[in-house]
Design a protein that fits this description.
Shape: elongated
Radius of gyration: 20 Å
Helix content: 55-70%
Order of helices and strands: EEHHHHHHHHHH
Strand content: under 5%
Largest sheet: 2 strands, antiparallel
Strand order of the largest sheet: 1-2
Number of strands: 2
Structural class: mainly alpha
Length: about 200
Amino acid sequence: MEVAAAPTAKGRPREFCVDQALAAALGVFWSKGYEGASMADLTEAMGITKPSLYAAFGNKESLFHKALDLYEAEKLEYTREALKQPTARGVAEHFMRGAIDAQMSSCDPKGCLGVISATACGAEAESIKADVIQRRASSQAALVERFEQAKRDGDLPAHIDVAGLTSYLYAILQGMAVQAGSGATRADLERVVETSLMMWPSR
């Protein structure tokens, strides 16, 4: 656990836990999006001052990138586990059910941080969108390769457009994230998963 010294007006610097502060910042970004999260929101949640935030994390943009790293490491572990499933259908199901667990967690904001941030606009948000899109492209490439392997193994029919199938799955995942952030229940999302699996091109 990393501890940073927060600058104070006088006396010894006050120490704070960088990991806890970053987790708090992630919660703010996740619930409000990059643009909706003000510096006042962030410093209040993190329990530090603006100078302390700048000293430990850089600017707001840099803080977001670090929060996104934490989000991927802690909240998207299910995506890495999904790729290890023995069948393509199992991969897809693990992705979708893992997304439900992540998006409907009782201790985290609803929806997906990546989807929320990808819709940010304005000059300041361009690097944020670019980062989110690059990370998503990397994840999609891994999924394409997994489905290509399934095709080589005979687990997916030879005529399947693997890139199209991957885009289809991501469209479902992104739609679920939007619905989760708009008040959909777990049961609503479970129905989406069940319907999608009925349409999946392999058992």
